[in-house]
Design goal:
The complex is a heterodimer. Chain A is mostly helical. Helices cover 67% and strands 5% of the residues of chain A. Classes of the chains: A mainly alpha, B alpha/beta. Chains A and B meet through helix 6 and helix 7 of A and helix 7 and strand 9 of B.
Chain lengths: 174, 226
């Protein structure tokens, strides 16, 4: 997640003080990791330097916590570009679990066990996210679901691989 | 904590296929356990043996310390009616009965009076969020609603153990989640032990732990060092 562009998006809602931005950011996105004030002001300063944000003129003389900021036309363009450019699906072709499995097969170690151990770890993570979901509001439920679906995809791969280990061993050792 | 269900050395074959090849399982009172594994791995056979539906070829199953695999069919039938509840993939509700009557059936079979059975069935429909659906027949309910009726029917006798075989298998993600959420809330409140067979990790994630069955064996996640 790009926290700078997310902040820019929040400013585009209305010109805002740094303090208010941090509060809004934390409420919407700070479930695991709230933003530090220092990071908010450093990000604002960088976006001003890049011409994406501007302090509102009438309060320009005060310290950073007394200023309101607004998105510039360049900032609006950058925001739209960010929002409507699709994210590249995360790189998974160099996956560590895959590498461990192949090395285990190559070196005669127990690949089944390593997949079982990984599977147990993934399931534990799913159980913990499912517990967090119970009683959570919709925003957090959707966030946990995003994580759950990704872990589930790994689990499906682990199960498929476990079922095809003999064939994979033959190919690896060929 | 003592085991409510304990299986030792379970073996079961169908024709020449060995579904279970020596399975040991111990389930504690109040625990929610998911049985997972690929299709044909033996997970449903394990559930059926634990529930006294299927008699294993070898090995024992004990419920509260009493062997059940050696009981005759009548005694096992009584046990299934009084101590165990069942939910299947397709609710298997009786199509000609209303939701209320479906839930009342196990109480009537256990000798409860009609009026009392109807009152308790109605309470359970309410707990499952089905107020107002009591007079609907199964075909007039959505898949998720029908499955919640099946859960009410399984829990109405206050069983010690609830056995669920792919309870969310025919539901979409949202309905599956609603069914699991409400089922887990109710069984946790009542302290019911649950054994749920599922191939769906999202359903299994509601359990306290999972047991993997692969090729008729229970697979344990231990490293080479263990």
């Amino acid at each position: 997640m790009d926290s700078a562009l997310t902040l820019l998006g929040l400013v585009s809602l209305r010109p805002s003080y740094g303090y208010d931005l941090k509060q809004l950011y934390d409420r919407l996105f700070g479930l695991r990791k709230p933003l530090a004030f220092g990071q908010v002001y450093a990000t604002i300063a960088r976006m001003i330097r890049d011409g994406l944000l501007a302090p509102l003129g009438e309060e320009a003389g005060d310290g950073p916590d007394r200023k309101r900021y607004a998105v510039t036309p360049d900032g609006e363009r950058r925001l739209a570009e960010w929002m409507f450019t699709p994210d590249v699906p995360s790189e998974t072709l160099q996956n560590n679990i895959f590498a461990k499995t192949v090395v285990a097969l190559l070196t005669g170690r127990d690949a089944h066990s390593l997949l079982d151990i990984q599977r147990a770890c993934h399931m534990e993570q799913m159980r913990s996210l499912t517990r967090l979901k119970q009683g959570a509001g919709l925003m957090h439920v959707l966030l946990y679901d995003h994580a759950l679906f990704h872990i589930e995809a790994d689990l499906r791969w682990i199960d498929m691989t476990a079922a095809r280990l003999t064939q994979l061993r033959d190919e690896v050792l060929a | 904590m003592t085991a409510i269900l304990e299986a030792r050395g379970l073996r079961k074959s169908f024709d020449r296929t060995e579904a279970l090849r020596g399975v040991d399982v111990s389930i504690r009172r109040g625990e929610i356990v998911a049985i997972m594994g690929p299709s044909g791995s033996g997970k449903s056979t394990l559930l059926h043996c634990l529930a006294g539906v299927t008699v294993p070829d070898a090995g024992t199953v004990a419920f509260n310390g009493t062997p059940i695999s050696t009981l005759d069919e009548t005694a096992r039938g009584k046990l299934r009616l009084t101590d165990f509840g069942f939910v299947f993939q397709f609710g298997q509700l009786l199509p000609e009965l209303t939701a209320l009557d479906n839930v009342a059936v196990p109480l009537l079979l256990a000798g409860e009076r009609r009026g009392t059975a109807a009152t308790r069935a109605s309470e359970w429909l309410g707990r499952l969020g089905l107020d107002g659906k009591a007079q609907r027949r199964p075909q007039e309910l959505s898949g998720g609603e029908a499955q919640r009726v099946a859960i009410a029917r399984a829990l109405v006798t206050k069983p010690a153990v609830l056995f669920a075989d792919e309870p969310t298998g025919s539901l979409d993600s949202l309905a599956a989640e609603a069914v699991m959420r409400i089922m887990i809330d109710l069984v946790r409140e009542a302290g019911t032990t649950v054994v749920v067979v599922t191939h769906d990790p999202r359903t299994a994630a509601y359990a306290d732990r999972d047991i993997i069955v692969r090729d008729g064996h229970v697979s344990v996640a231990l490293g080479e060092a263990a």
